[in-house]
Amino acid sequence: MLKSLAAWALSYRLIVIALALLTAVLGAWAFVNLPVDAYPNIAQTQVKVILKAPGMTPEEVESRVITPIEMEMLGIPGQAILRSSAKYAIADITIDFVDGTDIYWARQQVAERLSGVMGDLPPAVSGGMAPISTPLSDIFMFTIEGPLSLEEKRTLLDWTIRPALRTVPGVADVNALGGFVRTFEVRPDPIALASAGLGIADLQEAIERGNRNDGAGRLAQGEESLIVRAVGAIRSEADLQSMVIATRNGRIVRMGDVATVGTGSLTRYGAVTANGKGEAVQGLVIALRGADARAVVDSVKARVAELEKTLPQGTTIAVFYDRSDLIGRAVGTVEKALIEATILVIILLILFLGDWRAAAIVAATLPMSALVTFLMMRGMGLSANLMSLGGLAIAIGMLVDGAVVVVENIVERLNHAKDDGPPRLHNVYRATGEVVVPVSAGIVIIALVFLPLLSLEGLEGKLFAPVALTIIFALAGSLLIALTLVPVLASLGLKAGHHGEPWIMRKLTPRYRALLDGAFGRKRLVYGLAALGLVLAGLAYGAVGKTFMPSMDEGSVIVQTAKLPTINLDQSVLGDTAVQRSLMKDVPEIAQIIARVGTDEIGLDPMSPNETDSFVVLKPQQEWRGDKAFVVDEIRKSLDKLPGIEPTFTQPIEMRVSEMLTGSRGDLAVKIFGPDLATL
User: Fold this and answer.
1) pTM for this structure?
2) 291 domain residue, yes or no
3) Is the model's pLDDT at 287 over the cut of 90?
């Protein structure tokens, strides 16, 4: 069958060249439109339910909120793991489904069961399902800088910036952290209430009843109609003060008569501090599950540029984390390796083949195989990331094996062809047919080596399967090209004649023959050296360090600090500010520090007031006094001066992957139900 493929290619050479050009165009299109991210999507199909229960301790949250929901969620088809965590006023329930489960179907199942149990929960409990995202969806972070107060910055974020960014395609939600959420506050006067014969319930009922607009239809006036409506919605403190509560002895009792009306803020469960200058307001863009991270970030940056033109005077959006920077470094590193490997392969081809025409034909296999790989990756839904592009870099040297054998055999046959013998095209076909079996067998054997990676399941499979698939795609493309395009190009570009042995082979061949003769003359020594090498390799394998995740420098450092468990939010904020001032003073490599303590607005990452994640943005590496390990060590020395601080060091994506593996951040109450419903 493979010989027939080569025969067909040589019979329709123009069609093969046209198909190759079409494949190159489609491959280039696939490369441009390929989703790009730093890591492959390793998250399971996951649905999170986040509920807020004001005033409840972790024990109460566990017994009154989490337990009823867990009982309702057990038994959902395709459910793999149900785990939950309880913190003060926060319930976090996570349901993982088996691989391949449609995320929207899973959310529908959870929503149906959640709606049935919400009515049985305490009245103050609120919340629902988290956005359709993964632990690696935090792609864009910024703070609002300017002369505005914390309340005004938070209002700007909630009512202007967040709605605008949520309309960007690929954005699941925008999380808000820090600042004060403005509220109206009513402080009843007990004596005035008693004198009017009213209670707290009367005030609450009056506010709920009066905070609305109402209509009474239309009033005809000549040829026109006027809308009749009563405006009662509260827009200011004066509206609330003038609200009528009741009538007593012909006298109207208003809210301002029995209570003090003012403004305040919602109870805060978290805060943000920046650069040792005090509190700040932070926004965090969460990408939709499966979205192209690079495209989403580009769209978000374009929308931010539009928004900055409409912000109040002196107010700016300061970006301190941009996933596209990491993506650019990760993909750029692999692209650099690909280019260097391609250049090295071409140089070696010219040296060992000794013919630039033959080397050019073989070298054409490299870009064509890569384009075929990108086309197949696009068709399989793979993204271009550190793992998939790394697989292509691994395969670079193997992609030319088949083409080298085919071209070398064609050159050899053309050199021995007689003028009155078969036509050149026939010689090319015979030379290709002679090596079809060894070429295809060699490439298939190499591909089989990587097949076990495809048998991995769970997190390992999602992480390493892209490597195996990319290599297999590239090898399959190289085999197809070696048996079709390479013979066609050889028939057009190579000529019959003397093909002298390359200079490097003339130098190496005598030395190799002498080495080979010496090996045959000392077989026991060769066997002994081979056995010794095997033993040394085994010892080295046992001594070398091992890790599951490949280590990648993300360009930023996260310092996680833990304080006294009973510390309040205000004191925790003061401690974070002291940490930032110490680090900014002692470590000149640090450009910015943005720290988050406690729980964010959505509740995707619930933490206690004693837990802080400090995002350390470093200056360009050329301004460092040493490497990254030196910088981390300097940060550690600076933190050692501060009592009551226990630091740990990680990176943004590394932290999320770790949380995904452990299932929690050391929560007070964590329960995990597996498929057998056994509580661990």
Assistant:
1) 0.81
2) no
3) yes
